[in-house]
UniProtKB/TrEMBL annotation:
<dbReference type="InterPro" id="IPR011042">
    <property type="entry name" value="6-blade_b-propeller_TolB-like"/>
</dbReference>
<keyword id="KW-0031">Aminopeptidase</keyword>
<dbReference type="Pfam" id="PF07676">
    <property type="entry name" value="PD40"/>
</dbReference>
<dbReference type="InterPro" id="IPR029058">
    <property type="entry name" value="AB_hydrolase_fold"/>
</dbReference>
<keyword id="KW-0645">Protease</keyword>
<dbReference type="InterPro" id="IPR011659">
    <property type="entry name" value="WD40"/>
</dbReference>
<dbReference type="GO" id="GO:0004177">
    <property type="term" value="F:aminopeptidase activity"/>
</dbReference>
<dbReference type="InterPro" id="IPR001375">
    <property type="entry name" value="Peptidase_S9_cat"/>
</dbReference>
<keyword id="KW-0378">Hydrolase</keyword>
<dbReference type="Pfam" id="PF00326">
    <property type="entry name" value="Peptidase_S9"/>
</dbReference>
<keyword id="KW-0720">Serine protease</keyword>
<protein>
    <submittedName>
        <fullName>Dipeptidyl aminopeptidase</fullName>
    </submittedName>
</protein>
<feature type="domain" description="Peptidase S9 prolyl oligopeptidase catalytic">
    <location>
        <begin position="448"/>
        <end position="651"/>
    </location>
</feature>
């Protein structure tokens, strides 16, 4: 039984964060898919009864509908919708039927809607471009815009671009008197906040008199990672700072059963140290702060509880807060009583809870596992009910493989947790050792398209969470601070050695690959050993020194992870030992990657090419750091095909043959236009 193929990307169905009607009877969720023919993402809203009495069915048919939210009175559904090549705008739809009405026309699009308690207003954030930039003046092309004068360290972000000339602010828009009216006249949104700062994560106080949001408006905000909760009246008056700490704050929320809004609940890294930048391995956990002002107080132990869900808010309902917690490759769903009672685990096991909502006492969660990118489950006291089957099209191909959980032992006795996924048959199978990015993230229980594609091609895939990863407590994540490439490298190799004890895996035919931090580890290990037949270093953190001035996070990330002592930095730098690499190595990078900038990849490629090491440089135009996860669909497909071509050349299998491997390096394996992505032909050594 083969595994997933690159073209099967079109079969992926990925549900987002659900919303639940106030009576708990109905869930609505956006489901996205890749349209490979049109080279774009499509997304529609689906509705399903939470009692499982009927299958999910499409509710909207827009080009890209997302972020649905029921109004508190249950009459309306607000959501974002984008037309082809357009930006997402706020829409409302009457639950009892009718035509959706568009409420906004922001040049750069609107953010996730948040209902007022009386269901008559919506708050959201939107970026406000400077006049004359980003197409606000049709006579001024991007190349004709005036120069940007930069005076701060924080002025750009990967996958977004420059931020200092399009700040994010809070807006409020009134629901029209007749929201079912299809007239073109739209209400005028009111801009609540302003200034040369970014405002995010807005929430209403239960009485509707104030809005809470997150911003960094303090002195020194340009050099630290501290962010605070602020409150403001909907008319823009009464702005004040609530939190008084060295924390990173996000997702403020009130208890709807407390009309006075005396406490604000939030997600936070409670303490970033004296500099406000000590973020390495720090868990983001559930916390609270007095609405009158004060310190951030954790409600869960920040040493052990790290938020891992994608819900764009802190969900407070029924006297409890709900949060997804990373744990050993899973994301569990916890219900945390506000009165200090013991947390209750609502979803655990081999699952990743990606998002959730609560209504009428029913909890609905989007849950992924190794056979589906996400399904909705309804949780009621004593019962969990599966209510969707979005993964069915891919499962029906018979081309999915189960992960096998295992634990190895590092040289110092530390346990290294991970997974092995193997093709059918006795083997011995060639092996691909993959390393995740971050480093403070985790591999785990979800459908990973890359792993499935590699298994389809005949490779056993190894994935582990070495020290430095999330999901195993702060000590696990922080131990590599200023010691990258030490214990974490030991863990990766120990996991490989333990897996290779299986006679079904071919210890003589092993490839190494990874992206971002995984690219760092790939480049580093290839400079230390020749045990790998070939490698792929993708969007790598290869040189901490040049990273400082080139990356959007360069002003703090290397200092915190590798330190500032030149000798110690060199000892942790993959580029410092790249001159020792003799292993054939493919370098993959995106041309607009501002997280690990292009020079991090091109310098490695040139170092190898000048010495005659077999190498290729695969560059993707128009893409940033998130190419493999959210890049253009055809680019994602082409990336997988080129990766398989590389492995077919150096680690051929019966299902990834030499015929495929002999495609010219510049050819498009799937019929895409030649030259996109750009490739540089490798030199094969005899």
């Amino acid at each position: 039984m083969p595994g997933m193929r690159p073209t099967d990307l079109s079969l992926l169905r990925v549900p987002g964060v659900p919303t639940v009607s106030p009576d708990g009877a109905t869930a609505v969720v956006a489901v996205s898919r890749l349209d490979l023919d049109a080279d774009e993402y499509r997304s529609q809203l689906w509705t399903v009864p939470t009692d499982g009495s009927a299958p999910a069915r499409p509710l909207t048919h827009g080009h890209h509908d997302s972020a649905p939210v029921f109004s508190p009175d249950g009459r309306w559904l607000a959501y974002l919708s984008a037309e082809p090549k357009g930006k997402p705008q706020l829409h409302v739809l009457a639950v009892d039927g009718g035509t959706a009405r568009r409420l906004t026309d922001h040049h750069l699009g609107a953010g996730t809607p948040v209902w007022s308690p009386d269901s008559r207003r919506l708050a959201y954030t939107a970026r406000v471009p400077e006049q004359g930039r980003y197409g606000t003046d049709e006579d001024v092309s991007p190349g004709a815009e005036p120069p940007r004068l930069i005076t701060t360290l924080k002025y750009r972000a990967d996958d977004l671009g420059f931020t200092n000339d399009r700040r994010s602010h809070v807006f409020v828009v009134d629901l029209p008197d007749d929201a079912a009216d299809t007239a073109e006249e739209r209400p005028t949104p009111f801009q609540v906040t302003g200034g040369d700062v970014d405002d995010t994560d807005v929430a209403w106080r239960p009485d509707g008199a104030e809005l809470a949001f997150v911003s960094a408006r303090h002195e020194g905000a340009d050099t630290d990672l501290v962010s605070d909760v602020y409150v403001v009246r909907p008319d823009g008056g009464g702005l004040r700072r609530v939190t008084d700490s060295r924390a990173t704050c996000a997702h403020p929320a009130y208890d709807p059963d407390d009309p006075a809004g005396s406490t604000i609940y939030l997600s936070a890294i409670p303490d970033l140290g004296p500099t406000g930048r000590d973020f390495v391995g720090r868990n983001t956990t559930l916390a609270q702060v007095s609405a009158a002002g004060g310190p951030v107080v954790p409600l869960l132990d920040p040493e052990e509880h790290d938020r891992g869900d994608e819900t764009p808010a802190t969900v407070v309902a029924g006297g409890a807060a709900h949060i997804g917690i990373q744990r050993r490759g899973a994301v569990e769903l916890l219900r945390v009583p506000l009165d200090g009672g013991e947390p209750e685990t609502l979803v655990d096991g081999s699952y990743t809870v990606r998002g959730f909502a609560v209504g009428g006492g029913v909890v609905v969660a989007t849950v992924a596992h190794d056979r589906s990118a996400g399904e909705l489950i309804a949780v009621t006291p004593g019962r969990r009910r599966l209510i969707t089957g979005f993964g069915a099209p891919l499962q029906a191909t018979g081309r999915l493989h189960r992960m096998r959980e295992t634990t190895a032992t590092a040289p110092d006795g530390y346990p290294v947790h991970g997974w092995v996924t193997t093709p059918p048959g006795p083997g011995p199978h060639p092996v691909l050792l993959t390393v995740h990015g971050g480093p403070f993230s985790q591999y785990g229980w979800t459908l990973f398209d890359e792993t499935q594609a590699y298994v389809e091609a005949g490779y056993a895939v190894l994935m582990c969470n070495p020290r430095g990863s999330s999901g195993y407590g702060q000590a696990h994540g922080r131990v590599i601070k200023e010691h990258m490439g030490e214990l974490d490298a030991d863990d990766v190799l120990a996991f490989l050695d333990a897996a290779l004890a299986d006679p079904g895996l071919d210890a003589t035919r092993v490839g190494l690959m990874g992206g971002s931090y995984g690219g760092f580890m790939t480049t580093l290990l290839l400079g230390r050993t020749d045990r790998f037949v070939a490698g792929i270093s993708e969007r790598g953190f290869n040189d901490p020194v040049s990273f400082v001035g080139s990356s959007d996070i360069g002003f703090f990330f290397p200092d915190e992870y590798v330190g500032t002592d030149p000798e110690r930095v060199a000892a942790q730098s993959p580029m410092a030992s790249a001159h020792r690499i003799t292993t054939p190595t493919m370098v993959i990078h995106s041309e607009e990657d501002w997280r690990c900038p292009l020079e991090q990849g091109t310098r490695l490629y040139v170092e190898l090419k000048r010495r005659g090491v077999p190498t290729e440089l695969l560059l993707f135009p128009g893409e940033g750091h998130e190419l493999s996860r959210s890049g253009r669909p055809k680019h994602r497909q082409a990336r997988l095909e080129h990766v398989l071509r590389w492995w077919g050349r150096w680690l051929p299998t019966s299902r990834n043959s030499s015929a495929v491997a002999q495609l010219p390096a510049g050819a498009a394996a799937s019929g895409s236009a030649v030259g996109e992505p750009l490739t540089v032909e490798a030199t094969r050594l005899s």
